[in-house]
Amino acid sequence: MTGSKILLVDDEIVFTKNISKLLKYRGFKVTAVNSGDAAIQELEKSSYDVIVLDLKMPGMDGITTLKEIQKLGLFSQTLILTGHGSVDSAMDAIKLGAYDYLVKPCEIDELVNKINGAWERKEDIISLG
Amino acid sequence: MNLENNSNEVNLEENRKKYYPRLFRKFIFLTVLCSLVPLLIVGWGINFHYTSLSKERVMTLLKTYVEHHRKIIELFLSEHSSKLQLIAHSHSIEYLRQVPNLNEIFEIINKDNWSVTDIGLIDDSGAHIAYVGPYDLMKKNYSKTLWFKEVMSKGLYISDMFTGFRNEPHFIIAVTRTENNKKWILRATINPEVFRSLVENVSIGKTGEVYLLNKDGIFQTTPRFHGKIMEKASFPIEPIHEGIRVRVIEKDSYNPSNSRQIVCETWLDTPKWLLVVKQSYKEAFYAVNHANYATLIFLHVSAITILIVAIFITKHMITVIQNRDKEADQLNKQLMQAGKLASIGELSAGVAHEINTPLAIILTERQLMIDCASIHPISDPDFLEQFNDSMNQIDVQIHRCKRITQNLLRFSRRTKSVLETIDINHFIREVIELMEREARTNGIKFFAELDNKILSVVSDPSQLQQVFLNIITNAIDAHDEKPYGSIRIKTEEDKIREGVIMLFTDTGSGIPQELIDKIFDPFFTTKPVGKGTGLGLSICYSTMKNLGGSISVSSELGKGTTITLFIPYKPPKELAKDMAASN
Lengths: 129, 583
Hints:
The complex is a heterodimer. Chain A is α/β, with parallel strands linked by helices. Helices cover about 50% and strands about 20% of the residues of chain A.
């Protein structure tokens, strides 16, 4: 949804920079961080509608970061981005509570669709109380 | 490296070619050494021993026979000598000179057989006093004959054969008695026929002969072959000796029979006659030689049989070993293939992941360019056209890369399969339907020969579908150079391995023999650059392995290719266990 706050977590700086720009062009408010620790710190400071999280990162990996995010008890929905292409790791993430996953490289429109889906789910959860 | 491998394979092949004949020779040599040689040694040994014993026995029998015959002759002569001595000493000259009395005695002597031809009474002057016999000898005077002199000096005399006054070969036994200081002689002529029948008519086999010789080598009886009574023998005779002598004479001038002979000789005590028993060596040892030949023939036939059987068995064994070696080679190749795939699989996963990230960036860069162009429209139409073309081409190439990496990942991943009961015939029909449109546009028809007796298999449908699609896609692509063709899909049951065999036979261009071994290698493709990733059959190979089945290929260049799949009715235990754990 235009105006949604997106937290983009990926260790590839160029990738986060590009995706940030692309999402901003499409009306999203994007904050990009390059590690799991930075993502947790950012989430402790501000609230986000959707978190786009890469699974494979140095230091704290995507799955651990996701577990930490779950511990914060936020309404934010997490969308997994993986270069792995394997269903297994993404399925693990979904079991941990992630909204959905996307395989890199992916079209921007596809990403936008998934973000919108995640935002809607978040809205549903809030409205259901 | 490849050259080195090829030369190693050639060396291995050459070594194999030499190895089997060498193995064959070794087996045959060992068989001969361990069975034939002992058999022949024992056989020949027993044969030699048996032959020696048998020959010794034959010789002993011959000796016994000669001894027996000598005794019979001696007994005959001594019996007649004794009879004459008894008559001479029990009757006076006065009694005997009466012809009726002498005739009575003559008849008594010949009562049993006509062994005495005549009997005569002779005084010390050599004149006949009385005579009973067929000849007219009353007027004959014997004073100058050898026998007269001998009997007068010795008292008993058995003569050699002589013709005498009657001109017929005969011999006499004469005894003397002194009565009233006067010596007289009782002389009997032995019936030559009776004596000859006693000696000569005893023949041994077809070649045996018995005869008597005196000290001077004159025949005393007529031999069965070569020679006559009273003739001198053409060969030297044995000097007087005790006992029986046995010798073997080869065919030479002294052996008129012209064959090897056994000669048994013994000297009679009185008179000094040599009893000779001859028989052809061949006949004497006929039974022994016959048994000997039979044994040797049996022995050698056995040896040849063993040799032939050994050759056949060894050939069969070598064939079995060759087949086993081929199977082992096949297994080794499969093992190497599996190893190669495993290591390449790990590498592929890493490569795919590493490529995906830059691809994602390129894609975002492209999107940014497009976004920028939409915000700041490009006014130059040529530039705009080039820009759009380039953006499209980037998109196409990114998708191509993405397809490659996805294939790589699919090839390498260990998916958590879902096992389902699948009706293979139904399943393949669905796949054919899926592919029919694409095939039709290439002029290719599908033919299905599906065996209705096959049972359902428990396997992973998505993986199987992937395998079928890959094989059919390859089969369609193989017809690129042909305007039309067919793909024949056949299912049949494999009762032994308990599963289904699927044959995908196309009429495409086929695969050269030298490339057959490589078609399951990752990145190996015969398709034009850019069309194939070279991963399709590798994925099929690893998938079929994973599902407990197998894949193999046979092809004839220009005629087509057949891919054979084996799908087991039940998945391997490890896979089933993994499924259970993950579910």
